Amino acid sequence: MGQIPFGAILGAPLMAAVSAQAAAAQACVDFIKNVGLGRANYRTLGKQLQLGERLLGQPELALDFDVAYRIMSHGMRRGSFMGKKLVDFIGTTGSDYLHARRIINGLDQAAKIEQHARGLEIVLTTSLISPV
Predict the structure, then answer these.
(1) Of the candidates 27, 45, 29, 47, which has an alpha carbon nearest to the alpha carbon of residue 103?
(2) Please, where are the H alpha helices in 35-96?
(3) 95 - beta bridge partners?
(4) Residue-level pLDDT at 4
(5) What are phi and psi of 32, to 5 degrees?
(6) Which of 2, 4, 36, 89 has its CA 20 to 30 A from that of 10?
(7) What's 87's DSSP letter?
(8) Backbone angles phi, psi at 12, to 5 degrees
(9) What angle do CA 47, 86, 34 make, to 5 degrees?
(10) CA 2 to CA 77: how far, in whole Å?
């Protein structure tokens, strides 16, 4: 992914969103590394992510970028980390990007991520093709 010139191809707002996603995945890896998920959570996540008992027997697998991303994505969609889902903050009724950050890593860098998300939303909204 580092070889593709996303900035030149997609523009700064989308590049910011890609960077924010990578930072969120790294935050998940850091959390797992520093705090861990606990045996029960490793067992549950292993089953839900179709990893079987591998996470329980090898919790360091959660440090693998792809596995960490799957844990983060799953947790955001299901509300596994704080009891709130991404859809509770971002949906058809509005977007609370600032507080959506709480799902993964509290409010760390929340204002910056909110700014990037709003920029991406503007780009995506204005690029919609209207029906003729």
Answers:
(1) 27
(2) 39-48, 54-57, 65-78
(3) 90
(4) 65
(5) -60, -40
(6) 89
(7) G
(8) -60, -45
(9) 60
(10) 27
Please count the other Cβ atoms lying within 10 Å of the Cβ belonging to residue 44. 15
Check residue 89 and give its pLDDT: 93
Closest of 114, 106, 40, 103 to residue 77, by C-alpha: 103
Tokens of 81: 């980390």
Tally Cβ neighbours within 10 Å of residue 55: 24
Q: How long, in residues, is the chain?
A: 132
| ∠ CA 40-45-51, rounded to 5° | 120
Q: Is 113 exposed, middle or buried (0-12, 13-18, 19+ CB in 10 A)?
A: buried
CA distance 34 to 97: 25
Q: Which residues pair with 91 in a beta bridge?
A: 94
Contact by Cβ (8 Å): 71, 49? yes
Walk along the chain (132 residues) in steps of 10 and give the mean pLDDT of each run.
Answer: 60 70 74 66 87 84 86 89 90 90 84 89 81 63
